[in-house]
Amino acid sequence: NAGVTQTPKFQVLKTGQSMTLQCAQDMNHNSMYWYRQDPGMGLRLIYYSASEGTTDKGEVPNGYNVSRLNKREFSLRLESAAPSQTSVYFCASTPLGQISTGELFFGEGSRLTVL
Amino acid sequence: AQSVTQPDIHITVSEGASLELRCNYSYGATPYLFWYVQSPGQGLQLLLKYFSGDTLVQGIKGFEAEFKRSQSSFNLRKPSVHWSDAAEYFCAVGAGAGNMLTFGGGTRLMVKP
Questions:
Q1: Distance from A110 to chain B by nearest Cα, in Å?
Q2: pLDDT on residue A86
Q3: Interface touch B46/A92, C-beta < 8 Å
Q4: What does the pLDDT look like over B28-61, one tens digit per residue?
Q5: Which residue in A56, B8, B23, B62 is deepest, having the highest Cβ count within 10 Å?
Q6: Terminus-to-terminus CA distance in chain A, angstroms?
Q7: Which residues contact A53 (CB under 8 A, 6 or more apart)?
Q8: Phi, psi torsion values for A44, nearest 5 degrees
């Protein structure tokens, strides 16, 4: 009963390096999301995918790209990491059309440090 | 655009004491309101939600919240706190179907034995 799985859980990068955060869900959910969490700022939406084949920008998309590989997987890529991208990243999912119910299912997070 | 304010960054209560976490929102119509809890090293879990109807909603783990339109508030309460309630709590607002959630900055709850 995995739910939402994120990898890696921890990563340290140097400025300018690239990396991809992976997310997979086994609940047959249609919609998937990437958030970042910074102290005192709650969670801010980076990108989301309402359904397979679609992606849209959220509140803070600059410096990130996403790929909805299939219904299960939604990856977040940092092409050229910056110290401002040091954060904890959360992937979440929900059934299609259910965002208004608020029941997002979250992964355990990926802590990224950019030096 | 909607916004959420959680005025208290940290709160410490004694085990067995009552708890109230404050949440104020800004939105032009009746919003969808949520409380999430995040235990250390974990993702967020939905505690309760309000869409319409009865303004006092019950959630999991013995929590409840009351929607007060006149005060634009949705405060979370628990009559008797347990040590396992120590966590960070997030209030969130959604503007309806298809709209994304906006989260507050969070309140970290510590419980004294």
A1: 10
A2: 97
A3: no
A4: 777 889 999 999 888 889 999 998 888 999 999 9
A5: B23
A6: 35
A7: A68
A8: -120, 135
